[in-house]
């Protein structure tokens, strides 16, 4: 994140959505009686990702020598796969993953030097 010059406060929200059609995945059929696994490549649709990001920056102090910056990232992804257990053909399965991340930075400027934590 880069603060905009001359602006003591900046908050930006970014939303995105990605849909992947015709993805190639390595699917398999697993036989529990023999322990054998048969792999094959499949062409499937259904993978998608929603992402929301928030970038926050605040400069303060008599000479704007202090800065608090924050970056929050949330994503929700659906990933499809082909899995079969004791069957001839694998079935389509979807796995939903969600992540949340936060970065917080405090910076103090003394002359031309910057100290961040």
Task: Describe it.
By secondary structure, the protein is mostly beta strands. Helices cover about 0% and strands about 75% of the residues. The protein contains no helices and seven strands. Strands 1, 2, 3, 4, 5, 6 and 7 form a seven-stranded mixed beta sheet that branches. The mean pLDDT is about 90.
What distinguishing features does this structure have?
117 residues, 7 strands, 0% helix
Please give a quick description of this structure:
The chain has strands at residues 9-20, 23-30, 37-44, 47-60, 66-85, 91-110, 113-116. It is mostly beta strands and 117 residues long.
Shape call: elongated
Note the total helix count. Answer: 0
Strand content: over 45%
**First-last Cα distance:** 15 Å
> Could you tell me the radius of gyration in angstroms?
24 Å
SS-derived structural category: mainly beta
The sequence of SSEs as H and E is EEEEEEE
Task: Estimate percent helicity.
Answer: under 10%
**Main sheet attributes: strand count, strand direction, barrel closure:** 7 strands, mixed
Contiguous uncertain segments of 5+ residues: none
- Average pLDDT, rounded to a whole number, is 88
**How many beta-strand elements?**
7
